[in-house]
Amino acid sequence: MLTAGGAAIKNELQAAASARFKADGLLDIDRFESNLVGSGATLLNSVADTAAYPGSFDVTGSSGTRTINYDATDTITTLKDKINLETANTGVTADVVTDGNGVRLVLTENTQAAITLSDTNGLLAGLGVDNGLVLTRESNTIDDLFAGITVTLFSAEEGTTIKTDVDRDLTQVRSRITGFVDAYNAAKQFINQHTLVDDTSGEVIAETGILFGNRTLGQIQSELNSVLGSAVSGVNSQFSILAQIGIELVDNSLQIDPTLKDTLEIDDLLLDQVLLSNPNDVRKLFSFDFSSTDPRITLISFGAGTTYDAAGYTLNIGDVFVSRRDSQTVLDKTAVLSDGANSFGATTAGTFDINGVAIAYDADGLNGDDDTLETLATAINNAGIAGVSANVYEDSNGTFSLQISSTITGLTVDNDTGDLLASMNLSIADYAVSSANINGNPDGSNDGSVTVSGRTLTATDATGANGLTLLFAGTATASGITLNATTGLGKQMFFDLDTILTPVTGSVESEITSFQDQNDSKQERLDRMLERLSFERDKLIDRFIVMETALATMQQTKNFLQQFTDAEYRHQAGLAGGRELAGREFVAFAIQAAALGMAHNHVLAADVGQHARCHFAGEGAGFLVADILRTHGNLRPCQHLCHPGDVHKRRAYGHFGCGNSVFSGLDPLDQRLDAVE
């Protein structure tokens, strides 16, 4: 006998190449079998000699309950026949199966629903009938029965049991706890990095992360601190906080790295000790724990609003009704119902009722108008029965069955005037709960505390069980079922952080969206600025090109004038301050002054002398200088300059300028051009 915690594995060798065995605690709800007996002709009283004869036992399946009577003359085979006479009323079929050198009586439920046996006079116990899950393997090495356990079979006779104790493997549990601590510390270090401040001034420092002051980061930190700082309610008080199992906060005064402050560390010795001595208490500290006083209640899920209640929650179940009936399978859904090979083999036309509504059918094999499985389903759907529907279901084997379902009331199928219902062998496939409540009326009436969908019950926010989802496997009303639940640290932390981290609606997602919106806004602004800068750059380039062109033109003009003056004026003229200034030098200087803006209207930056004069020899000189001064920008004759005509009139020595300064930056002098060629 081999299982964890002392449960047994009974090994029954079927043949040299394979082994049949059972594991205590593993049950098959829709299959029962007896011990091995000599043959089908073996008398019952020769095997089950402690049973009472005559006697009886009850068989209950999906279709109902029937009593099977027997006496001392019955054999295994005749007992099988008596059980099968009631198959239509129970849904249970019996077989005598050859197994090695003997046979077994095997009971199976046609719809895989649960079988219940009531052994009134001890016959079933004497035959060893039970529903232990029978396992068959072709190898003597079995590694798929229990997780983490490998069994090697060497030899065993029928009925031999092997027992061994299996210790808990806590390696994975410890690894997960370590993983939890590592994950928490990583999150805490991230938060610390973005909340660093100077210990003295309280100001942000260079190492502080960019999320300093972020609201969502602060919310996450608050949730983590709240969960770790609270004791878990409803669990063993000696194991209700992390420190009691060896997980504690670090000593901040010993931390050199400021991001390690308020992280967790593990006391390995203490953790190993509590894992060995109190593993279930450690599990409850971390996880959600649920229990029910009714084994027909199974936990499906729980929610953020599911909380611990010291008194527990009382569940009451209202009416339970049949919600689906299935026919036996057929090979062809398009075959007529009278086809015994491919369909049900019915022989009559007639009607049957579904919840009191008559459904007509034709399966008499006459006139070529018999119904098929598909047309029968259509007829049911067209009958307009409230909450009732029918469909043709194809299973994995490629065979078909008729499924009749009801969503709002019990499903009754009866009153057949022919033989179709008997041929279809309808069986109960499922039940549904009409109503239920928590802490309400014992009759299970609906008070808004529980919503119902088939067999699934979900607690609403009317009680602290909010979000608790259960499956009820019973077939009748029930009341006073006590539900207990505790919420460990893992459950609390998961749901607290889930509201922050959940996609679309979570705080983190909102922050990401906000950052993205800001980024988009900044990008749009940057794009506009770049566009404007590009526009301004283009303008400056255009202006530069114009200036370059202008300067090139002026340079060409200067070069032309230079050539002209070189040709026209070959010797110096003008005597001022003891030195002569050549006519062409003066003209060149005037052009340069005009280009550089050195002269303007009348008053210049520096006085060139009260008696500065320019005298030109020749009639054309005055005109030339005056034209130069007029055509070049800022340098032009002052208001006292004589018109070039005056120069012409004076001929050789035309007056040019006045007693005021004409050019900035010159020493006082009189300029005189004695000869212009």
List the helices and strands and how they pair.
Blueprint: E1 9-15, E2 18-27, E3 31-33, H1 44-47, E4 55-61, E5 64-70, H2 76-84, H3 87-90, E6 92-99, E7 102-109, E8 116-118, H4 123-127, E9 132-137, E10 141-146, E11 149-152, E12 160-162, H5 171-193, H6 215-228, E13 247-249, E14 264-266, H7 268-277, H8 279-286, E15 288-292, E16 297-301, E17 313-317, E18 320-326, E19 349-354, E20 357-362, H9 373-382, E21 388-394, E22 400-406, E23 413-414, H10 420-424, E24 427-433, E25 436-438, E26 450-453, E27 456-459, E28 469-472, E29 478-487, H11 489-501, H12 507-568, E30 572-576, E31 579-582, H13 583-596, E32 614-616, H14 619-631, H15 644-650, E33 654-656, E34 671-672
N-to-C CA distance: 138 Å
Query: How do the strands of the widest beta sheet line up side by side?
Result: 9-2-1-12
User: What Rg do the Cα atoms give?
Assistant: 53 Å
Poorly predicted runs of 5 or more residues: 1-17, 571-584, 595-677
Overview of this structure, please?
It is built from 15 helices and 34 strands. Helix 12 packs antiparallel against helix 13 (583-596). The strands form 11 sheets. Strands 9-2-1-12 form a 4-stranded antiparallel beta sheet, with no helix packed on it. A 4-stranded antiparallel beta sheet has the order 15-29-17-25. Strands 16-28-27-26 form a 4-stranded antiparallel beta sheet, with no helix packed on it. It is 30% helix and 26% strand. The chain is of the alpha+beta class. Strand 26 and strand 27 form a beta hairpin. The N and C termini lie far apart (138 Å).
